[in-house]
Specification:
- It is a single chain.
- By secondary structure, the protein is an alpha/beta fold.
- The longest helix is centred in the middle third of the chain and has 19 residues.
- Helix 2 crosses helix 3, helix 2 packs across helix 9 and helix 6 runs parallel beside helix 7.
- The protein has 2 domains: about 230 residues, Alanine racemase (TIM Barrel, Alpha-Beta Barrel); about 120 residues, Lyase, Ornithine Decarboxylase, Chain A, domain 1 (Beta Barrel), CATH 2.40.37.
- It has 12 helices and 18 strands.
- The strands form 2 sheets. Strands 1, 11, 12, 13, 14, 15, 16, 17 and 18 form a 9-stranded mixed beta sheet that branches.
- Strand 3, helix 4 and strand 4 form a beta-alpha-beta unit.
C-alpha cells in the first residue's frame, strides 16, 4: 500500500542535507506507472519515460526496474539510458533540429529512431534505405496544453511533419525504400480533455493507411497531473477504454495488430518531487509582505517561465496562523515564485516546501548569478539516499580555461 512521504521526513531531509534541496519519492513514481499500465491493460501498450523531465541516473535506473522504457530527445540522454541499463530496443530517440550525424550516432547504438522533418527523412533514407526501420513524427495541427510554450502540435509548431505533407513523405519513402514501422504525434502537455488524444488517434489512423507495415502508433503524452486541490487530472481510465475500442476497430480494417506507445514524463515524476528552501528574510513593504528564500528561478524556473503554480507549505510551522505572502527568490532579476499566497506564518529560518517539483525542476536549473545547484535526494524504502551532491564553488569554474 502506497504511503505518502510525511512532513516529518521532509523536514528531516532538509536538516540532514541542507537547502535548497530536491527530494524525490520513489514509490510515488511506481504508483503513477502502475496507474498507467492498469488503465491501458486491455490493449498492448508500451510506456517510454520522457527523461527530459528528470534524468538523474538513479531515477533512470528505477524506471528500468519498474518496467518502463525510455524516451530521449538528445544523444546524451540515449547514452544515459544505456548506462542505466536500458536495452537499445527499449529506447526511443526523438530529437528535434539536430543534424544527421547525431541520428547516425543513435543508429550505431541500435535505438528506435523517430524522425520529425522531411530533410532528415530524405538524408536518412538515402543513407540507410530499408536497412534501419524508423518512426515518423507527424504534426496533427491540434493545439493542446496548458501553456502555448508547451503546445507542440499546432500549425506554427517546429515539431513534426505536417499532415498536409503526407504525399511528400510517401515520395521520399518510395524513392529511398525507407521502412516505416511507427507513426508518432505529440500535441502538448497538461491535456485535460481526453478527446484531444482520441482526435489525434483518428488522424493517426488516416495517416496509417498510407503505410502498410506499421508495428505501433505513438501518441506522445501530455497527461495532466493536479497542481491545485481542485485541478482536474487526465481521465486515463476512460481514455484507456475508448482507445482500446478504437484501435481494435482500426486493426480490423488495417489488417495488422498495432501496439500503442506513450511517452509520459511529468505524469510519472511531477508529484514525486519536493523542493525545499529556507526563508532568509521576511520583508514588509508598504504594499506586500515578501518571503525571500535561498533559491530562485535558477533552481525552479517553471513559475517564471510558464506561470506555473506550485503549492507551497511552511513545513516548519504547519499549525501557525495563516497570513498572505509573496514568495520571491534571491536572484538579481524579478524572481517570483508566488504572488499573494496564503501560508501559515513564516519566520526567518523556516523551511518552505514546493510540491509537484519532480518534473522540469532540477533539469532546468542553472548557475545564473553564480549560484550553486542544489543536492538531490531519493526517498526509497523509508530511507533517504543522496543521489547528487550539492555544488561547490569549484563547479562554477569546471571546464573554464583561464588564459589571463
Amino acid at each position: 500500500m502506497f504511503q505518502p512521504i510525511s512532513t516529518t521526513k521532509i523536514v528531516a531531509a532538509a536538516n540532514e542535507f541542507g537547502t535548497p534541496l530536491y527530494l524525490y519519492h520513489a514509490e510515488k513514481i511506481a504508483q503513477q506507472f502502475n496507474k498507467l499500465t492498469d488503465a491501458f491493460k486491455e490493449h498492448p501498450t508500451k510506456f517510454f519515460y520522457a527523461c527530459k523531465a528528470l534524468a538523474n541516473i538513479n531515477i533512470l535506473k528505477y524506471m528500468h526496474q519498474i518496467g518502463s522504457n525510455l524516451d530521449c530527445v538528445s544523444i546524451n540522454e540515449v547514452l544515459l539510458g544505456l548506462k542505466a541499463g536500458f536495452a537499445p530496443q527499449q529506447i526511443l530517440f526523438t530529437p528535434n533540429c539536430v543534424d544527421l550525424n547525431e541520428i547516425i550516432e543513435a543508429t550505431n547504438l541500435g535505438v528506435n529512431i523517430n524522425i520529425d522533418n522531411i530533410s532528415i527523412l530524405e538524408q536518412f533514407g538515402n543513407k540507410y534505405g530499408s536497412n534501419y526501420p524508423i518512426c515518423i513524427r507527424i504534426n496533427p495541427h491540434i493545439e493542446a496544453g496548458g501553456n502555448y510554450k508547451i503546445s507542440t502540435g499546432h500549425i506554427d509548431s517546429k515539431f513534426g511533419i505536417s499532415i498536409h505533407q503526407i504525399r511528400h513523405i510517401e515520395r521520399v519513402v518510395k524513392k529511398t525504400g525507407l521502412q516505416v514501422k511507427g507513426l508518432h504525434m505529440h500535441t502538448g502537455s497538461e491535456i485535460k480533455d481526453i478527446n484531444v488524444f482520441l482526435r489525434s488517434l483518428e488522424i493517426m489512423f488516416d495517416v496509417a493507411t498510407h503505410f502498410k507495415e506499421l508495428d505501433f502508433l505513438d501518441l506522445g503524452s501530455g497527461f495532466k497531473v493536479p497542481y491545485k486541490e481542485d485541478d482536474p487530472e487526465t481521465d486515463i481510465i476512460t481514455l484507456g477504454k475508448k482507445l482500446t475500442v478504437a484501435v481494435k476497430e482500426f486493426e480490423n480494417e488495417y489488417g495488422r495488430k498495432l501496439e500503442i506507445w506513450f511517452e509520459p514524463g511529468k505524469y510519472l515524476v511531477s508529484e514525486c518531487g519536493y523542493f525545499i528552501v529556507k526563508a532568509n528574510v521576511v520583508k514588509q513593504t508598504t504594499a506586500t509582505v515578501f518571503v525571500g528564500v535561498n533559491a530562485g528561478f535558477n533552481h525552479l524556473i517553471r513559475p517564471m517561465f510558464y506561470d506555473a503554480y506550485h503549492k507551497i507549505t511552511n513545513i516548519s510551522n504547519p499549525n501557525g496562523a495563516e497570513r498572505i505572502y509573496t514568495v520571491v527568490g534571491n536572484i538579481c532579476e524579478t524572481d517570483t515564485f508566488a504572488w499573494d499566497r496564503t501560508l501559515t506564518e513564516v519566520r526567518e529560518g523556516d523551511f518552505l516546501c514546493f510540491h509537484n517539483a519532480g518534473a522540469y525542476g532540477f533539469e532546468m536549473s542553472s548557475h545564473f548569478n553564480a549560484r550553486l545547484k542544489p543536492a538531490e535526494v531519493l526517498y526509497k524504502d523509508d530511507t533517504l539516499h543522496l543521489i547528487r551532491k550539492r555544488d561547490e564553488f569549484e563547479n562554477l569554474l569546471l571546464n573554464q580555461i583561464e588564459v589571463l
